[in-house]
Design goal:
Elements: E1 5-10, H1 16-27, E2 31-32, H2 34-44, H3 48-57, H4 62-74, H5 82-98, E3 103-106, H6 110-113, E4 120-126, H7 129-138, H8 147-166, E5 178-181, H9 182-197
Parallel strand pairs: 1-3, 1-4, 2-3, 4-5
């Protein structure tokens, strides 16, 4: 199978960012995560902190989702909400990066932006609760007494943003081509598997 793009969504604490970064290093294929926000910030003159606030405020209401999808499909950026404008700007940035050639995308509903691109593999990375908590404490520096709350908050935010802009559940296995458990496979194992796609 020929793969041109890998679009990764992940649970908080699953190691998805590290997997994407190492996959990029080992395969020589560029990866875009925060770079998507940086491009939107530069192109539209909006601070990254403000973009992140818009993402967090994106509602998961059904009407908002239908409205955004209809506007996105028409290519219009005339949205009534800043959240919708940010989503379209991110989708545009992803498409622009994809025009440069093979790429790895992390988050930001990249699979939605790439849905018309052939050879795109949609990946979801998950992990066991105890392993995710340990990584959040050790790698992300979150206090142990705040791990549960932080993990729940960020996963809920990601799920809400994903649903609001795709009308699909973040953790719906039918939305992905490949689901990897980093607790079972390890970071190295996930990277090795994904590298074979290129």
């Amino acid at each position: 199978m020929k793969c041109s793009y890998i679009a990764i969504e992940r649970e908080y604490g699953s190691g998805g960012t590290e997997i994407a970064r190492r996959l990029s290093e080992e395969s020589g294929v560029p990866y875009y995560g925060r770079e998507i926000l940086e491009k939107v910030s530069k192109d539209y003159g909006i601070p990254i902190s403000q973009i992140e606030k818009y993402e967090e405020k994106a509602t998961s209401s059904f009407l908002y989702t239908i409205y955004c999808l209809a506007r996105a499909q028409s290519g219009s950026d005339d949205l009534t909400s800043n959240e919708g404008k940010i989503f379209l700007a991110e989708q545009s940035a992803i498409k622009n990066f994809a025009e440069r050639g093979r790429a790895i995308f992390l988050g930001h509903c990249a699979a939605e932006a790439l849905k018309d691109k052939p050879h795109t593999v949609k990946v979801f990375i998950r992990g066991d609760e105890d392993d995710k908590k340990q990584r959040i404490v050790c790698d992300y520096g979150i206090d142990e007494d705040r791990v549960e709350e932080t993990m729940h908050h960020i996963d809920k935010r990601r799920a809400g943003y994903y649903y609001a802009n795709t009308a699909c559940r973040f953790d719906d296995i039918n939305s992905y081509d490949l689901i990897l458990n980093s607790s079972v496979l390890g970071i190295d194992g996930c990277v090795k598997i994904l590298k074979t796609l290129f």
